[in-house]
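Q: Study each token:
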Amino acid sequence: MIRYAKLYWLFLAQRFKILMEYRTNFFIGVISTVFLQAASILSIWIVMLNVPVLQGWTYEEILMVYGLLTLAKSLNHMFADNLWPFGWSYVRTGQFDRFLVRPIDPLFHLLADRFCHDGIGHFLVGLFLVIQSSIKLSISWTPLLFFYTAIMVISGGVIFMALNLITCVSAFWIIDSVPVTKVIFETNEFAKYPLNIYPNSIRILMTWVIPYGLASFYPASYILGRDIGVIAWAAPPVAAVLLFIGYRVWQFGMRHYASTGS
């Protein structure tokens, strides 16, 4: 574990050296994500202008939900974004083969091969939204609440990573896994809003099947003092189970990988 931590730090340092060669592009990438998030927040604001209270949720409370989801997604963007182009960038070109002849785990190498700096913009936006909504809602932050929020954000990020891992493995058979990954990933749009505004089918989907709601709605409910029971703590075990499943699916795909033949 220590060896891989040191290796990741070396990969990360080299990645930032490359990014700093083109500093303007680096800052444009970070700032552009801020503007994209601002457009989404504007759409929520417009909705809330017409519906000031949505199923018992105010604008500031919905921003808390959105902020937590954005923080979780930012971790996925920064540390696991290389799962998206896995098929067409690594499998199709044969670049994945070079990972198989090196003395480190191929999945670790794939993840460490690229740090996506756009995720920094997402992280800053998510952090701003959580802080801003906390101030507006006069939330009293205790050490336990800080710890809870940090664990939920990390667990949410792992949920995003695990689901992307499970879907990207399809590249071993269909080469371009982006459509498969995108179908699952885009359902996180539902989790930007409180799940209780949706029919039961959507709530079940976002809680137990594609559990993005565990990264947003349930942690936000706990932080806001809403009584939702033990499900407020469900994100860490669900993230661990999904990560285990994702890695086993990855191993299954690896056993059936036949290279490009080139």
Remarks:
- The CA atoms of residues 103 and 109 lie 10 Å apart.
- The two ends are 34 Å apart (CA to CA).
